[in-house]
């Protein structure tokens, strides 16, 4: 249904209104000039012929209305359509020939526009050739980058400060695919992709903490600052992540960050198994030595002379004592190794104290200050979990002891670092302290599975509570390891490998901060998931089901064909024969395919943090909305509809079907009526519509949504 053109309606009905007004006026004037007898005679003459005169008037009005409507369509409407198509040639870079359906003058004007468009296309080709020649050096640099990335043994992911992925190598993609808790359902539905958020894989708090550590080291003038942490994935894997900054040229301002990842799950499990074996060996050997010692004691019989017996027993006892000591040392070493298994990072004590104070104040609203810290002291800590432990203890003090101020002290102590969390307030019992030490940690509204004791054991340290009555203060004391002498690991030493960075786009460094409201974001800056569904029918509320979902992503104004989503869905009902010639999906094709309960979570993750786009989006969204209660998933992001956007930029066009829009904008239609094929056409149409929206002063998402809602087509619902 096209939008009503009231000008066309007016052209058709105005002649009838004009004739009626003219006839009525003529009759009134004529009646005013006659006396009563003459008016009566005239009425007697006209009355028998009134019906005939009215019919003649209607026919005349219809003929004039038709002539005026045809004239409007021939001149005004045709000119408006030609103007819209000419704007598309100019703004959306459409490559097609215009054909006007108006008079000779409009056809001549269309030919002139086509000539200008042809000349512009030739000029653009010439400019493109010169740009390619000038860009040859840049291309060589890109190839060098590819070669360098191919030599890295680690998985590499480059992100901007919003956490959007700018670059990743194939090794990273394979690693994240292996980390998935379940096999990927859809082709291309990877955990990572260009423009996607790294926070879908890694905890945002860990990344933020690492960035903060890097920024502190940059502020101190470190030439090659980095941070390292270990995290677990949803599938139970362990990743060791090393972060390095991406800086603006000639500046210490962070522009993004590089993540180098190693899966240490297998190594961790193997070493833990060896620890358990050694521990068992120590315990078993200790028991065996006890038995030997008991047997030797049985040799103390009177038939042996005293001197021989004494020398023999002395040798045996010495050997037993020596073996027992060695086994005890082995068992102690094994236990210590298990406690400190998680990789620790070198961190300046002042940085740790500052970060802990900020975390405590943000979580609990109390005041946290650095009391005394050795400026030259370096610690070897898992800074994230240690700061969580300090914040958890501070929270207990705030809530249970009504403490409003806490202080941190860090100093050397017998080959260790001594960290004190100090406060002034009421004393507490040993039982209370033990409970705080062994209960799961809580920081604000966040609960952590680890306990303070787990964190201390991870560092191979000690923890206790003391009170200094003379000063009227109490403190929790932790003994932590000092950093080993030497330089931190240089990531550039880890080279070799076989994967090239086939997927990268540094234009994404220009992305704006994620904290900006989407409605205020420019359309050209947004990341889009363009999708389409194929269904068993057209009535979602009457039981029709999705049988295929296809989607593509637009990132930084570019269509990412390599990052697509396509999945058949078992509708668990018959597929009507009438629809098969349209979408080509038969019952045997979806037999054994996953149901919507399994596919929708994968698509939900794929579309996260993006703007959804579809053609006639109300139809597709209705199918998704009906599954919200069953799956527990809702698509709350903004939705743009290319059907409505086309009506916004081309209100004079007769049709806004996808094929008609694609033809107007010069988009080739391939794979129509497959979910992925329609999604691809819709995505290319959107890219053509964006500059046309700019021409109309529609620059932001909020403006596009508001303009869409004003069109007549926005009233369609399912």
The shape, in one word, is elongated
Q: Work out the count of structural domains.
A: 5
Return the structural class.
alpha+beta
- What integer value in Å does the Rg equal? 39 Å
Structure report:
The structure is a single chain. This protein is α+β, with helices and mostly antiparallel strands and 718 residues long. It folds into five domains: 6-103; 139-264, PAS domain (Beta-Lactamase, 2-Layer Sandwich), CATH 3.30.450.20; 268-339; 345-481, Heat Shock Protein 90 (2-Layer Sandwich), CATH 3.30.565.10; 516-715, Nucleotidyltransferase, domain 5 (2-Layer Sandwich). 48% of the residues lie in helices and 18% in strands. The strands form five sheets. The protein has a six-stranded antiparallel beta sheet with strand order 3-4-5-1-2-15, with helices on both faces. Strands 7-9-10-14-13 form a five-stranded mixed beta sheet, covered by helices on one side. Strands 18-17-16-19-20 form a five-stranded mixed beta sheet, with helices on both faces. Strand 4 (238-247) and strand 5 form a beta hairpin. The longest helix is centred in the N-terminal third of the chain and has 42 residues, at 50-91. The radius of gyration is 39 Å and the shape is elongated. The chain starts with 5 loop residues before the first helix and ends in a 9-residue tail after the last helix.
Please write out the topology.
Blueprint: H1 6-33, H2 36-46, H3 50-91, H4 104-134, H5 136-150, E1 155-160, E2 165-168, H6 170-179, H7 204-219, E3 227-232, E4 238-247, E5 254-263, H8 265-297, H9 306-339, E6 345-348, H10 349-364, E7 367-373, E8 378-381, H11 383-400, E9 405-413, E10 416-423, H12 430-438, E11 440-443, E12 446-451, H13 452-458, E13 462-468, E14 473-481, E15 503-504, E16 528-535, E17 546-555, E18 558-568, H14 580-583, H15 587-590, H16 596-606, E19 611-614, H17 617-625, H18 628-631, E20 639-641, H19 642-649, H20 658-664, H21 675-695, H22 701-709
